[in-house]
Write a structure and sequence with these properties.
Blueprint: E1 6-10, E2 15-17, E3 29-31, E4 41-45, H1 61-70, E5 75-77, E6 83-85, E7 88-93, E8 98-103, H2 117-128, H3 139-142, H4 148-152, E9 163-167, E10 170-174, H5 182-186, H6 196-202, E11 218-224, E12 228-233, E13 247-251, H7 256-264, H8 279-286, E14 290-303, H9 313-321, H10 325-333, E15 338-339, E16 347-348, E17 351-352, H11 363-376, E18 386-392, H12 395-412, E19 415-421, H13 423-432, E20 437-443, H14 450-453, H15 470-481, H16 485-502, E21 505-516, E22 521-522, E23 538-539
Parallel strand pairs: 4-13, 18-19, 18-20
Antiparallel strand pairs: 1-2, 1-3, 5-6, 7-8, 8-10, 9-10, 11-12, 12-13, 14-20, 14-21, 15-21, 16-17, 22-23
Helix pairs in contact: 9-11, 15-16
């Protein structure tokens, strides 16, 4: 699209007007001359019922997909990595330690009340407060916001957080050290401001359609649990004039087959994914409606390192070594996924990371070494290893679990007993530590290996494996202090080497993101983190 003249929609008359290049990322854009449908409504499958729509209570794309349509943060990251203003109009820093953000004038919540710097302060304090029990409580500490780590650990009060409202429209953020990824990390939806008055009044019911106020392009109008969530345009959104879609419906369809069937029936415009066992046929029959894009994400099995059998690193490493990940990526999946021996990514944030030595061994050599490790740990034919492997209900997760458990049985005589739970239930199971091994995946929050590696740091709120290694923690602290990308990459490699030895999680493959997208959907352009926003989409004129 860079060679074409791009334009913005003026919604009141559905005509085309000029758009400054500096604001392209802030608006839905269409090629000049494109005819728009009179009915600007979108239906997208969201893959599951969200656990919550409270930004401080959630941790996955199921929730953040919707939250990112409902709320704006201070900044956003464009597809090319540029930091763009959202609720903050501008910002400055003299030393990369103290940052000053200036909010847009006259920005309001969807009920017309003002959004102020005090809202940001209260929201971030709520995020790190142990009483909130946010899965992202450690995130501000990983950004090195002053006192954030100590507050999340319960050793300091939330009001000591290094963030202050200088006045209603000016925010000061203080760091303990320069952080190269600070601005990209700031774009994460856990850091969006929420309304203190609303939450104090309605507590956990504040996200219901009759109560919620939002700061983004949309506001919930209807929520039928396990059926649909509907949102309509927020006329008080600061950039409402650049929004095209008037109504968006999110469906919680977990069945990939049902997702495709409803797409074929014309009931869905964008699917959540594409079933592995239908991929080749759909690509042959639907052609350009099949979207396959790179994604900074790793699929893995997380292991509970606090109890047998996975409190022994030899057992964990043996299971990792005995898998044929080429078969998993290329045959079991077969959509362009790559075999994974790293928890993070081979290439991320300007850094290239190498896999452990044993990843290059022939499978037979890895299996032989894995058997030795298991025998040393006390597991053999007379005393075979057995454990529970949990996954959230979805056909692809089941397909993978069957394939992987079969490999372990054939190669090592290990029995993995398969269990499945609904998404919300599985998350609760993980955070209460009531599992042996559990299917999980991590999509990068920002383009840096730390977004993956921090999840295994001692005490991190996302460290549900409960892995702890002081040497690993020290390496990540050094990486955060690194003066340049090369030095940071050096520390990240050391961290990955430790994970390859200790294996708190078994990486299976690096993702691609697949969708079916109707031909009349314009503006669909997910970034490397898998994000796409309804406000950037428009519906082209079409039959039917």
């Amino acid at each position: 699209m860079k060679s074409h003249y791009l334009t913005r929609i003026a919604l009141s008359v559905l005509t085309i007007s000029g758009l400054s290049a500096t604001h392209l990322a802030l608006a839905a854009v269409v090629p000049e001359g494109t005819q728009l449908a009179e009915r600007q409504e979108l239906v997208r499958n969201n893959g599951s019922e969200p656990a919550s729509l409270d930004p401080h209570k959630v941790e996955s794309d199921v929730e953040f997909n919707i939250i990112s349509d409902l709320f704006d943060g201070l900044v956003a990251v464009t597809k090319d990595g540029t930091i763009e203003p959202r609720l903050a109009q501008s910002w400055e820093t003299k030393d990369n330690i103290v940052w000053i953000f200036h909010l847009r004038p006259k920005i309001t919540w969807s009920d017309g009340t003002a959004i102020t710097a005090k809202d940001v302060v209260w929201s971030w304090q709520r995020l790190v407060d142990p009483k909130t029990a946010s899965p992202y409580a450690s995130y501000p500490g990983n950004m090195h916001i002053e006192n954030a780590r100590e507050i999340a650990l319960g050793t300091k009060n939330p009001d000591t957080l290094g963030v202050k409202a200088l006045d209603d429209s000016t925010l000061e953020v203080r760091l303990t050290q320069p952080t190269a990824a600070f601005l990209p990390m700031l774009a994460h939806p856990s850091l969006i401001p929420v309304d203190k008055i609303l939450i104090n009044r309605f507590a956990e019911k504040w996200t219901r359609p009759e109560h919620i106020v939002t700061s983004g392009a949309y506001k919930i109008t209807d929520w039928v649990v396990n059926e649909k969530i509907v949102a309509a345009r927020n006329p008080r959104y600061w950039n409402n004039k650049a929004t095209v879609i008037n109504k968006v419906t999110y469906l919680p369809i977990t069945s990939e087959t049902a997702d495709v069937n409803r797409y074929k029936a014309g009931e869905i415009d964008i699917t959540y994914g594409i079933p592995v066992n239908q991929f080749a046929q759909l690509k042959a029959t639907l052609g350009s409606q099949v979207s396959v894009l790179p994604l900074l994400s790793t699929y893995y099995y997380e292991l509970n390192t606090t109890r047998a059998p996975f409190n022994d690193a030899r057992v964990r490493r043996a299971l990792n070594m005995a898998l044929d990940k080429d078969i998993i990526a290329q045959k079991v999946m077969g959509q362009g996924q790559r075999p994974a021996w790293l928890v993070s990514q081979p290439e991320i944030g300007g850094v290239t990371l190498t896999t452990p030595d044993y990843a290059a061994w022939p499978l037979e050599k890895r299996i032989e070494e894995a058997k030795k490790l298991l025998n040393e740990a006390g597991y053999n034919d007379a005393h075979p290893l057995s454990f529970r492997l949990l996954y959230n209900t979805m056909e692809t997760h089941q397909r993978l679990a069957i394939a992987v458990s079969s490999m372990w049985k054939k190669n090592l005589g290990v029995e993995a007993k398969l269990q499945n739970q609904e998404w919300k239930t599985m998350l609760d199971t993980m955070h209460t530590g009531n599992f042996d091994a559990v299917r999980y995946a991590w999509i990068a929050d920002y383009d840096d290996a730390a977004t993956f590696l921090n999840n295994f740091r001692t005490g991190d709120s996302e460290n549900t494996s409960q892995y702890s290694n002081p040497a690993y923690d020290e390496i990540l602290l050094n990486a955060a202090k690194a003066k340049d990308v090369a030095q940071r990459g050096h520390y990240y490699q050391q961290a990955e080497d430790i994970l390859a030895r200790d294996v708190p999680a078994i990486p299976l493959y690096h993702y691609v993101r697949t969708h079916l997208v109707k031909p009349w959907v314009g503006g669909f352009a997910p970034d490397r983190l898998g994000n796409y926003y309804t406000k950037d989409i428009y519906i082209k004129k079409h039959e039917g």
